[in-house]
């Protein structure tokens, strides 16, 4: 077996295990740490797919910024360990129904998926590289890219204006 294939299987097992531990873990801090591990293993999958930029963005944005924010909020809330059972039977039944429905949908989508065969004559190993992504963004998707940047600028100015405190103004 090829080493890349065995590494893929190892990463897949680790991704599924850490994702299950996110859901199963009772401690919210442990759950966030398992989620960070899940993001790192997904970045490993991106690297195997030759999408280095996507892997770096996934680590920087999700595993870095957003998970630090989640961890900060969880620690800020200072949740105490309650030994009483807070989940009712109705909640457990609803969670089982929703989880089963998601499983059936995913299984149905998997059955309809057609995986193309590998053709070495038409294979392009430079698909996920940063240079090709830049050419695609600035050539084919220039208008949506610029509109998104203007939208982010307006949102940033709006957040500053909402957060700005006037002299004598009271915040409730």
UniProtKB/TrEMBL annotation:
<feature type="transmembrane region" description="Helical">
    <location>
        <begin position="55"/>
        <end position="77"/>
    </location>
</feature>
<feature type="transmembrane region" description="Helical">
    <location>
        <begin position="31"/>
        <end position="49"/>
    </location>
</feature>
<protein>
    <recommendedName>
        <fullName>NADH-quinone oxidoreductase subunit J</fullName>
        <ecNumber>7.1.1.-</ecNumber>
    </recommendedName>
</protein>
<keyword id="KW-0520">NAD</keyword>
<feature type="transmembrane region" description="Helical">
    <location>
        <begin position="6"/>
        <end position="24"/>
    </location>
</feature>
<keyword id="KW-1133">Transmembrane helix</keyword>
<keyword id="KW-0874">Quinone</keyword>
<dbReference type="GO" id="GO:0048038">
    <property type="term" value="F:quinone binding"/>
</dbReference>
<keyword id="KW-0812">Transmembrane</keyword>
<dbReference type="InterPro" id="IPR042106">
    <property type="entry name" value="Nuo/plastoQ_OxRdtase_6_NuoJ"/>
</dbReference>
<comment type="function">
    <text>NDH-1 shuttles electrons from NADH, via FMN and iron-sulfur (Fe-S) centers, to quinones in the respiratory chain. Couples the redox reaction to proton translocation (for every two electrons transferred, four hydrogen ions are translocated across the cytoplasmic membrane), and thus conserves the redox energy in a proton gradient.</text>
</comment>
<dbReference type="GO" id="GO:0005886">
    <property type="term" value="C:plasma membrane"/>
</dbReference>
<feature type="transmembrane region" description="Helical">
    <location>
        <begin position="89"/>
        <end position="110"/>
    </location>
</feature>
<feature type="transmembrane region" description="Helical">
    <location>
        <begin position="141"/>
        <end position="162"/>
    </location>
</feature>
<dbReference type="Pfam" id="PF00499">
    <property type="entry name" value="Oxidored_q3"/>
</dbReference>
<dbReference type="InterPro" id="IPR001457">
    <property type="entry name" value="NADH_UbQ/plastoQ_OxRdtase_su6"/>
</dbReference>
<keyword id="KW-1003">Cell membrane</keyword>
<dbReference type="GO" id="GO:0008137">
    <property type="term" value="F:NADH dehydrogenase (ubiquinone) activity"/>
</dbReference>
<keyword id="KW-0472">Membrane</keyword>
<comment type="similarity">
    <text>Belongs to the complex I subunit 6 family.</text>
</comment>
């Amino acid at each position: 077996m090829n080493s890349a294939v065995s590494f893929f299987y190892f990463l897949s097992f680790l991704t599924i295990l850490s994702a299950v531990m996110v859901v199963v873990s009772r401690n919210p801090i442990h759950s966030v740490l398992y989620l960070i591990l899940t993001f790192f293993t997904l970045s490993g999958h991106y690297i195997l797919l030759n999408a280095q930029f996507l892997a770096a963005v996934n680590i920087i944005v999700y595993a870095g910024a957003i998970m630090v924010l989640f961890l900060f909020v969880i620690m800020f809330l200072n949740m105490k360990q309650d030994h009483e059972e807070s989940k009712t039977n109705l909640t457990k039944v609803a969670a089982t129904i929703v989880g089963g429905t998601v499983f059936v949908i995913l299984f149905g989508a998997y059955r309809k998926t057609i995986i193309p065969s590998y053709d070495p004559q038409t294979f392009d190993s430079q698909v996920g590289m940063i240079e090709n992504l830049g050419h695609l963004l600035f050539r084919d998707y220039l208008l949506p890219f610029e509109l998104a940047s203007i939208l982010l600028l307006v949102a940033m100015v709006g957040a500053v204006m909402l957060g700005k405190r006037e002299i004598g103004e009271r915040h409730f």
